[in-house]
Design goal:
Elements (H helix, E strand, L loop, with lengths): L1 H7 L9 H11 L12 H11 L9 H16 L3 E6 L3 H4 L18 H10 L4 E7 L33 E4 L5 E4 L25 E5 L22 H7 L4 E6 L2 H13 L1
Parallel strand pairs: 1-2, 1-6, 2-5
Antiparallel strand pairs: 3-4
InterPro entries: EF-hand-dom_pair (IPR011992), EF_Hand_1_Ca_BS (IPR018247), EF_hand_dom (IPR002048), Isochorismatase-like_dom (IPR000868), Isochorismatase-like_sf (IPR036380), Isochorismatase_Nicotinamidase (IPR052347)
Keywords: Calcium, Hydrolase, Metal-binding, Pyridine nucleotide biosynthesis
GO biological process, one term: pyridine nucleotide biosynthetic process
């Protein structure tokens, strides 16, 4: 950090002015072939002003320390995490085989590209998420009579079919899509597919363990009542870049970017 600060303090006055800061960004924003990605002047000024906390037109040493730790170091030393979502038997050939859902795609098709990424990219951390439901889970259509439906539910227990959405009684009432029984804890259907590469140092994160609340995301349950350990683990590893893939894109995978933005 000190060497960087001194190298770009061209006039040796102990501060970085905007022209010196511009030279620094030119060094940062280039690819491995040396191609520059230039910042527009307005964007450059916005970034400079963000770190020029006291607004004196210079970035002093203390301001640069913040700039280094929260921006430069992240750019030059990114920490990548690979999140592999729910590549489990039940979603590929079991009770909730996605080839029978609206997308009509073969869930096994994700395995080869995931394995190739694991073989060719050196991720700093790898996480596998697993749907991990108790047998009395609220999302299973077989369990619909175990809980009281709210009077506002458009569908009754007698008329309910798989993939319908009902409303269970509660405060507030709870909307719930009904699925076939799937990924029940410690069953074949909940296991990761045998052809999926499992990294020894990886971490498994379990979701949907509360029988009364569904959980599509590996970060939070659907009601945002409780989180998993994933957020804390990503922070512990100082992860800067998170890559997400798995099953199924329109449900569990699709939830993750939304939760990250929150």
């Amino acid at each position: 950090m000190d060497a960087c600060y001194q190298a770009f303090d061209k006039d040796g006055d102990g501060y970085l002015n905007i022209d010196e800061f511009k030279l620094l960004t030119r060094a940062l924003f280039r690819n491995d072939r040396g191609k520059l990605y230039l910042l527009e002047e307005e964007k450059l000024k916005d970034i400079f002003n963000l770190f020029d906390v006291n607004g004196d037109g210079h970035i002093d040493k203390d301001e640069f320390i913040f700039c280094w730790n929260h921006w430069i170091k992240i750019i030059i030393r990114p920490i990548s995490a690979f999140l592999i979502v729910d590549v489990q038997n039940d979603f590929i050939s079991g009770t909730l085989n996605i080839s029978n859902c609206s997308a009509q795609q073969n869930g096994a098709d994700v395995i080869e590209p995931i394995n190739k990424l694991l073989d060719t990219v050196k991720f700093d951390a790898v996480f596998y998420s697993l749907d991990w439901h108790p047998s009395d889970h609220v999302s299973f259509i077989e369990n619909i009579r175990d809980r009281e439906l709210d009077p506002s539910s458009p569908i009754t227990a007698d008329n309910a079919q798989t993939y319908d959405t009902v409303i269970f009684a509660g405060s507030p009432p709870q909307k719930q899509r009904l699925w076939p029984r799937h990924c029940v804890q410690d069953t074949w259907g909940s296991e990761l597919h045998k052809d999926l590469k499992i990294v020894e140092s990886a971490t498994k994160v379990y979701k949907g363990t509360n029988p009364d609340v569904d959980s599509y995301s590996v970060f939070w349950d659907n009601k945002k009542m409780t989180d998993t350990t994933l957020c804390a683990q990503l922070r512990m590893k100082n992860a800067t870049d998170i890559y997400i893939c798995g099953l199924a894109y329109d449900v569990c995978v699709g939830e993750e970017p939304q939760l990250l933005m929150l």
